[in-house]
Amino acid sequence: MKTFGVVTLASVLFITGCVQNTEPVHEHKKLAQPILEYTVGSDDWAVVTSVTDNPDILEAYQFAVSHPEVLKYMPCYCGCYEEDGHISNTHCFVEKVENGIVTLDTMGFG
After folding, report:
1. Cβ atoms of residues 110 and 93 within 8 Å
2. Would you say 45 and 62 are in contact if contact means Cβ atoms under 8 Å apart?
3. Nearest to 37 by CA among 48, 22, 26
4. Would residue 25 count as lying in a domain?
5. Which InterPro entries does the entry mention (predicted)?
6. How far is CA 88 from CA 28, 31, 68, in A?
7. How far is CA 93 from the centre of its chain?
8. 17-30 average pLDDT score
9. Taking the model in full, what pTM does it have?
10. Who wins on pLDDT, 102 or 19?
């Protein structure tokens, strides 16, 4: 049963990470994305909850940070490779991890 839960959550992450905004983006109006940082082990997810109150999105980010070994085998098909260089679904949620600080990618917000 635990395996089913992990597979289900991984599927939700895959779908959430690949949702595209259908509104046209005009280069001159493109705003800088906020820098969202999470300290590993702190359990302070205010960086996510300040952007959304959706518990599924929060859970997706928590899973992505805790289990990148699962998401690295899930390719992302929404075109973020060309635009952002993402090579797996992990990159839709985690931009980088450095010295215990995770910089989150905003693509997981949809």
Report:
1. no
2. yes
3. 48
4. no
5. PCYCGC
6. 29, 25, 10
7. 2
8. 47
9. 0.66
10. 102
